[in-house]
């Protein structure tokens, strides 16, 4: 990112002249309060939100110029995990994971639902990696919140991405489940070498599961450095206030 700014049609400036480099294989925690620009940052990297000015290159693709097939190829290389899971509840877990293969599948196969054996094996492998293979034939809506988020992670993995973006992936989960999901993301990073950016607002999760911390406040980067150097004072600078009980996840 080079001097990247994002202004929405309603006039709200979500990102202000942000410059940074994220190296392959990094595990990055992006922290900030609601409205700090965390979601806009991730959605901009994925091409879901267009930049207003500056330069953004992801995996060799220039976001300002990527359109049509190139933008589709970029999104196929970037896995997205949302707070709300974004699953099709009435269909099977396996079918939800196979959605991750769409960018790699001819349109006619997608329309007819004809998935190759290779694609199904990729989906099964992704489910096994997050420990939920036994649920492959269950309806997604029958799963717990933590299980659904693991299906969402498996869907992202089935894309065989170079980069995974997670937007508040544990915000609606209880503490033990939140830690389990974060361990899945860390394992994806360490075992597969996939770059992972996770939006968080919880101090302890950001410290425990990231190696690099990027702090946003009012659309600007106010901290970018090692998690090991992120003292309480650093988080208070990022948040613009003292740390509160809601900023820490109890186990």
Describe the model.
By secondary structure, this protein is α/β, with parallel strands linked by helices. It contains nine helices and eleven strands. The strands form three sheets. A six-stranded mixed sheet has the order 7-8-9-3-10-11, with helices on both faces. The chain has a three-stranded antiparallel sheet with strand order 2-1-4, with helices on one face. Helix 5 packs across helix 6. The longest helix is centred in the C-terminal third of the chain and has 18 residues.
Number of strands: 11
Strand order, sheet with most strands = 7-8-9-3-10-11
Tell me the strand percentage band. Answer: 15-25%
**Kindly state the mean pLDDT as a whole number?**
91
Structural class: alpha/beta
State the distance separating the first and last CA atoms. 36 Å
Low-confidence stretches: none
Helix fraction bin: 25-40%
Number of helices: 9
Could you give a short account of the major beta sheet?
6 strands, mixed
Question: Rough shape?
Answer: globular
Order of H and E elements: EEEHEEEHEHHHHEHEHEEH
Radius of gyration using CA atoms only: 18 Å
């Amino acid at each position: 990112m080079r001097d990247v700014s994002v202004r929405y049609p309603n006039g709200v400036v979500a990102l202000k002249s942000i410059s940074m480099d994220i190296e392959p294989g990094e595990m990055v925690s992006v922290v900030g309060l609601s409205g700090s620009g965390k979601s806009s940052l991730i959605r901009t990297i994925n091409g879901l939100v267009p930049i207003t000015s500056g330069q953004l290159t992801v995996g060799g693709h220039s976001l300002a110029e990527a359109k049509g097939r190139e933008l589709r190829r970029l999104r196929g290389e970037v896995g997205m995990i949302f707070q709300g899971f974004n699953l099709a509840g009435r269909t099977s877990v396996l079918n939800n994971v196979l959605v991750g293969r769409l960018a790699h599948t001819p349109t006619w196969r997608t329309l007819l639902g004809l998935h190759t054996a290779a694609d199904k094996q990729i989906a099964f492998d992704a489910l096994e990696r997050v420990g939920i293979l036994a649920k492959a034939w269950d309806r997604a809506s029958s799963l717990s919140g933590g299980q659904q988020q693991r299906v969402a992670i498996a869907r992202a993995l089935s894309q065989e991405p170079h980069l995974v973006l997670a937007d508040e992936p544990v915000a609606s989960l209880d503490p033990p489940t939140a830690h389990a999901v974060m361990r899945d993301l860390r394992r994806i990073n360490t075992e597969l070498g996939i770059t992972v950016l996770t939006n968080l607002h919880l101090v302890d999760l950001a410290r425990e599961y990231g190696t690099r911390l990027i702090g946003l406040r009012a659309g600007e980067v106010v901290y970018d450095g090692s998690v090991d150097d992120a003292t309480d004072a650093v988080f208070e600078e990022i948040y613009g206030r003292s740390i509160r009980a809601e900023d820490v996840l109890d186990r």
